[in-house]
Amino acid sequence: MNSTIKCVILDDELLAISYLKLLCEQIENVEVIKAFNDPKTFLNEVEGLDCDVCILDIEMPGMTGLQVAELISGSKKIIFTTAYKEYAAEAFDLNVVDYVRKPIKKERLVQAFEKIKEISTVPQTKDFIEWNTNIGKTIIFTDQIVYIKTSEIDSRDKDIVLKDGAAIVLKNLSFRSLLEMLPSKDFAQVNKKEIIAVSAIKVFSTNEIITAVPAEGDQYLKLQIGDTYRTSLRKLFEK
To answer: What is the pTM of this model?
Structure first.
């Protein structure tokens, strides 16, 4: 990414947009390229815009920022803004970069943009993950991982299945951060709650993936492909 962070704003309140644009203009190397006050118009245009991050208000009539984020989270980095704290867990599960409470302060917005810079300068992935798990600080070799899903107990945690069937829980780790640790050519996000190792894919169709991961009985795990991830999955197999 260039040194200048290009951002797009979506908020249904024009005063909020003006205030946020004013704050962004005061931050070095940040440029607002466009602002929207209607989610549908935003969704129609955002994929064609050259931007690094989308700043989304959560509470909007007709369509919430959470719903908008589900549709673009595979292609754009996201910062949420909201006056309420109860959306924090949902925001984390959508792999957003940051969650900024209103009224927004310049110093807090600067922190959010610093996170964008950090993500963009992440070093090359290694052949292992070192992270806190249910069995303590653990090193997991990526070539042993076949399947990852969001934990049903706590959405901040991620359940990993290894080639030998063993299961490990990564504690408090978003999919966005996890994908940055994994070799991009070897893993693919299938929907907002599941990642599969490319080597574990047996059949790939328009809406479904059949894997080599054993399920109940003599069946194999089947994964539904989310609309947001279908294009990136196709590109993976075109390489």
So the answer is: 0.56
